[in-house]
């Protein structure tokens, strides 16, 4: 194909566009997650960092993931994270985004632990497992 530029067609209505891989400097896509309540396996809480507006709340794990994804889409994840007065329950650091998934680290400062994840599904599993263990 040489040096020719091949045009990439725009997605038609109803198609999901393919996202490109993006790598960001370490620490630029970091979010503080504050868990306020866990009821029947559903978490509710607040999120800071990544340009999240003050008081950003989520009512489920799915909504938290969608909120973070939206902030990352807007490029707001690269804004510096500021914590509330208390330490977050989790620190979520998204290092890469590829094929509608994330790769990164999840830290829980209170326990001094850290886990890496290679997909959003793996992140969900780590969060759910950690929350279930802390409820026991």
Characterization of the model:
With 136 residues, this protein is an alpha+beta fold. Strands 1, 2, 3, 4, 5, 6 and 7 form a 7-stranded antiparallel β-sheet that branches. The protein is globular and about 45 Å long.
What best-fitting shape do the alpha-carbon axes yield? globular
Q: Give the percentage of residues in beta strands.
A: 25-35%
Unreliable parts: none
Radius of gyration: 17 Å
- CA distance, first residue to last residue: 60 Å
The description of the largest β-sheet is: 7 strands, antiparallel
Question: What is the mean predicted local confidence, pLDDT?
Answer: 79
Query: Count of DSSP helices?
Result: 2
Give the oligomeric state of the chains in this entry, treating copies of one chain as homo and distinct chains as hetero. single chain
Helix amount, in percent?
10-25%
Q: What is the ordering of alpha helices and beta strands?
A: EEEEHEEEH
* Beta strands, count: 7
Helix/strand-derived category reads alpha+beta
